[in-house]
Amino acid sequence: MHVNAAATLSPEDRRTLLGFAARLAAVLLLLMGAGALAAALYREPMLAAGAWFVTHLGAPGVGVAFFVTDVLPVPVPPDTFAAMALVGGIPFSVVVAWATAGSVLGGTGALFFGRWLARRGWYRRVMERFDSRVDQWVRRYGDAALVAIIFLPVPFEVGAWACGAMGMPVGRFMAFALLRGVRITLYLGLFVLGWAGGGG
Length: 200
Known about the structure:
The chain is mainly alpha-helical. The chain has helices at residues 11-41, 43-56, 58-69, 79-87, 92-118, 123-130, 132-141, 143-151, 156-166, 170-177, 180-197. The N and C termini lie far apart (46 Å).
């Protein structure tokens, strides 16, 4: 995929990026708050849900959840299942490993879906239906856009579709997608801090 290394952020892109950065900061704070609130007010239901998740789905269930949600838009964030697995007793490192594997594979599936989608006349309508800014970012900034999408609270699967439509090589995409592990560690770690602070 050709990347214009000299591309600079337009005023509109700068405002959009700042908006997403503000959303990221809010999400990180909310994760800690959600962990504390869950531990303080919903500890028993959370423990029960975690026990059910571990008994019926186990650690692979975390990978499946991230795979599905990183291929197609799903209203439930995959971090919910990671938190359930963690509360259910699965070690942090195991949860992160399965989540990262599922996310990388799911994102790769979304990359191939994007290649298929790009050959259809309604590609533009689909992208506009979700978030056309993501498609514009990938076209303009290439790899840098993908890194931002991995960490910012924007649909990762839509970014992967855009990368596929632009013809990003699979190996290159997967190398960047491994950064999802850093993002997962950060998000889940903040939930753990909140959970511990709330008495979990």
